[in-house]
């Protein structure tokens, strides 16, 4: 079974979201999936903004100060920060020594520094969840240079803005490709390209688990025990003893069963969402194919008209060519007749006629 390299990303579009990111990454809030006994193993690898990791507001304050220093022009809909999560399949970390995990971690940091340079503001490794993983926070400022001329010469002006347009699907796929190549040394492989699977926010899953764990099954258990009392256990075993020994176990089993049921419903929901998206994509593709077919039909008719027009033009040209040949033949004939007519009107002297004229002159003398 392959062990996968994992890279995910999301856009952070508001300062309140930046604060939420800080609360999670710096462990400033309670979370069901965190082992507090291992939180001390977490490690900050990069903190160029010098964020106070004990203050949830510090991250957005320092990032805002950074943008203000550059005189960044903010606009509605700006992406303030990109968050990348890097990890691997849980099996990868089994039986790994601290040195091996540190080697993997250092490799991830170097990769992200090479990709994003000074825009990499925070990198933190979490070791207190089920699977070790990184959170990388990347700023989105972009420099523009405008050139202009006046009487004094040519000049240029620098300006900064927030721009996350480069983080399109193509860029992210290629980033994932490069990251997978970088991690081949650890035996990790890239996930399936263009997969339809989507990462779900953990909070939805945790909410479902909390609901199941907080469900009160006392009435269900009591009803079951009372049924036992009226059945074949009656008179053989004390109901109080059954209640004491089996109620905790039944409560655990029922809660486990409720978790499994909710997990099944959760999986069904994800499957339905993916199916719906695939259906929408298929319908969109069909509409595009229908559009292309209509365009092809229109072009086919246009080409047919053009060919018919061209054939008509060829027929006209053929008739004109025949007419020209007839006119040229007529012209040759007329030229010949014209030459004959000229000969009759103005006959040229011949040697015999010249001698005859000389004889006449001699006789007159």
TrEMBL record:
<dbReference type="InterPro" id="IPR001668">
    <property type="entry name" value="Mob_Pre"/>
</dbReference>
<protein>
    <submittedName>
        <fullName>Plasmid recombination enzyme</fullName>
    </submittedName>
</protein>
<feature type="coiled-coil region">
    <location>
        <begin position="272"/>
        <end position="344"/>
    </location>
</feature>
<feature type="region of interest" description="Disordered">
    <location>
        <begin position="345"/>
        <end position="365"/>
    </location>
</feature>
<dbReference type="Pfam" id="PF01076">
    <property type="entry name" value="Mob_Pre"/>
</dbReference>
<keyword id="KW-0175">Coiled coil</keyword>
